[in-house]
């Protein structure tokens, strides 16, 4: 146990986080998997994974997580895998400032707080890995995903700045930027749009009906969607490579988006993005 590498993995109730927590455990890591709800702990713990409650929007739970892990490992933490997030759909004009702030509390400020609490431990031991799951929407914009896109654009800037500042410390920082991945992300987004957006009185009511069909599964299926194992493949590289890359782009649509942004004039690229469903 003392020789095991330790990692905090967040957002492990389902999808990418749950898969990666199990895969990391199978690969010999001592995983501290976080979930927001007590009910989500049982399935992970049944697989021998140490599971803790943590909510990015509640700073006291972040401090409790770090304290508990330090107590169990003797202050050892080899890696942090920031993954837990959600997407708030909706046209920018339909997003209240409170809704936008809520998106940033979970997708940005909470990640920053956890990362700041972990870095001193990594500095003390002279090494560590920080891997943040961003999104292709942290690199290119997409209509009706303004809140999520803004949070991921912010995460990209903060993470790369952190990477530069930690150069030479032994702490390596990387971003994973997936396109469509099979998970509960879409179902959670559907709940958020119904909770916070006035769908009928919006100037975008017709478009929302199309968007809802896509989110609830009655619209066309994305044939480029991959399973969470695609994310784990690059996570392994970011955790184990001698010189991990700053960016790991996952899925064909994400790679195409990055390439087109590089090659096309900005106005043409944004017009092309606007036409995407």
Written account of the structure:
- The chain starts with 5 loop residues before the first strand and ends with a helix.
- The longest helix has 29 residues, at 97-125.
- Strands 3-2-1-4-5-6-7 form a seven-stranded parallel β-sheet, sandwiched between helices.
- By secondary structure, the chain is an alpha/beta fold.
- Strand 4 (79-82), helix 4 and strand 5 form a beta-alpha-beta unit.
- It contains ten helices and seven strands.
- It is 50% helix and 13% strand.
Overall mean pLDDT stands at 94
Task: Work out the helicity level.
Answer: 40-55%
Biggest β-sheet description? 7 strands, parallel
Order of helix and strand elements from N to C terminus: EHEHEHEHEHEHHHEHH
Give the CA-based shape: globular
CA-based gyration radius: 19 Å
Number of strands: 7
Cα distance spanning the termini: 49 Å
Strand order of the largest sheet: 3-2-1-4-5-6-7
Kindly estimate the percentage of residues that lie in beta strands according to DSSP. 5-15%
Count the helices. How many?
10
Structural class: alpha/beta
């Amino acid at each position: 146990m003392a020789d095991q590498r330790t990692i905090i993995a967040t957002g492990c109730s389902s999808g990418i986080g749950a898969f990666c927590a199990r895969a990391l455990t199978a690969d010999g890591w001592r995983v501290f998997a976080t979930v927001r709800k007590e009910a989500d702990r049982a399935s992970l713990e049944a697989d021998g994974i140490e599971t803790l409650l943590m909510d990015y929007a509640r700073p006291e739970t972040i401090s409790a997580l770090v304290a508990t892990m330090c107590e169990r490992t003797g202050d050892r933490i080899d890696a942090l895998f920031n993954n837990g997030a959600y997407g708030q759909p909706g046209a920018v004009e339909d997003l209240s400032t409170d809704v936008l702030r809520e998106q940033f509390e979970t997708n940005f400020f909470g990640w920053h707080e956890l990362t700041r609490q972990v870095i001193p431990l990594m500095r003390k031991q002279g090494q560590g890995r920080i891997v943040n799951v961003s999104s292709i929407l942290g690199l290119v914009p997409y209509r009706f995903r303004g809140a999520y896109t803004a949070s991921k654009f912010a995460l990209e800037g903060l993470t790369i700045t952190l990477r530069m500042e930690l150069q030479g410390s032994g702490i390596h920082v990387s971003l994973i930027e997936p396109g469509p991945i099979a998970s509960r992300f879409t179902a959670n987004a559907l709940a958020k749009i119904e909770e916070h957006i006035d769908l009928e009185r919006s100037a975008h009511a017709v478009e929302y009906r199309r968007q809802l069909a896509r989110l609830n599964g009655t619209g066309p299926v994305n044939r480029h969607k991959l399973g969470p194992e695609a994310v784990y493949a690059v996570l392994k590289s970011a955790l184990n490579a001698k010189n991990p890359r700053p960016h790991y782009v996952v899925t064909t649509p994400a790679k195409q988006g990055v390439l087109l942004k590089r090659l096309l004039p900005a106005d043409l690229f944004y017009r092309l993005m606007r036409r995407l469903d």
